[in-house]
Amino acid sequence: xxxxxxxxxxxxxxxxxxxxxxxxxxxxxxxxxxxxxxxxxxxxxxxxxxxxxxxxxxxxxxxxxxxxxxxxxxxxxxxxxxxxxxxxxxxxxxxxxxxxxxxxxxxxxxxxxxxxxxxxxxxxxxxxxxxxxxxxxxxxxxxxxxxxxxxxxxxxxxxxxxxxxxxxxxxxxxxxxxxxxxxxxxxxxxxxxxxxxxxxxxxxxxxxxxxxxxxxxxxxxxxxxxxxxxxxxxxxxxxxxxxxxxxxxxxxxxxxxxxxxxxxxxxxxxxxxxxxxxxxxxxxxxxxxxxxxxxxxxxxxxxxxxxxxxxxxxxxxxxxxxxxxxxxxxxxxxxxxxxxxxxxxxxxxxxxxxxxxxxxxxxxxxxxxxxxxxxxxxxxxxxxxxxxxxxxxxxxxxxxxxxxxxxxxxxxxxxxxxxxxxxx
Length: 424
What we know:
The chain is mainly α. The chain folds into two domains: about 15-230, Up-down Bundle (Growth Hormone, Chain: A); about 245-420, Growth Hormone, Chain: A.
């Protein structure tokens, strides 16, 4: 027999596998992701296009990539977001007050970048881009902390998937809107209009309130205690190892003779659809199979996806082979992105969620950039594509074996922080 509240819940009419995506907290994660993704795109492809249209040299445009360093090193000031109570608006809650303040700061930084003129004062544009990079990275810190503390442990998988959906929607929508408005009304109007993409996260904080699972950090007394309080969440994560490598697939496609149209259709088109499907399946797998099994399956799929590119490299120019390799790799990445992000979220201690997740995401980014930028190209030249992708498959296997061992020995359960525990 159903209760009156259950009869009035429209979610019960949805298939069980879809129902978790329409719960309040995962929906909130979608809107948080939208605001997170847009700021990154404003100093990424959008700014690159703007500078190129103003005739800025390629070397100068490339130098603007340094603005992303704030995202790499955001963990250095993440403890401030965990520990510092903002004046006046701090009474509305630690997470909400920081989310509102940083949302307003990001909007101001986007507008500042819009008013800066690359044609007359490139240095001002650089300053504005750096300001937006710092503001956007700090906005990410609080968005991640709010998301983790808002989601129940059982929702971490679905919530991570919704967050990734939102990130891609925010980045794509803001980038497209900027281009359309710039063509018709100029770049200043385009940037000022796109600043509104910070509002979804701010509205989430207004509607959802302060996360019920947020834990106030212990107040320190004295300089030494303050130093310990600042660095203790960083030290806690020294026990976790996570290595991510980015593969230079575009080099493979070019050397195999694929045209730009073929790359656009298969890599961007087919790959994007497969990624979205992988994200959806990842959320369902996390909810149905549990954290450990879904993460293990994702690790296996991501390892095997490297082998698919070895097969493509051996087969040569084949559209069917490219579609299969790209589709499988993006599906595995989408599923792995959800389950691994959910797992990393579960590792966090609710007393300093912002600090620990910022450290994990920053280390992953730094490792990926370093590996890709310093070793991959030379390695491909030395051993060839087939051997390179076979090597990456082999290198991924110890990580799979290690996580399997952690499951069997109980270490995976012991590593879970309060963010991943029910009732915490």
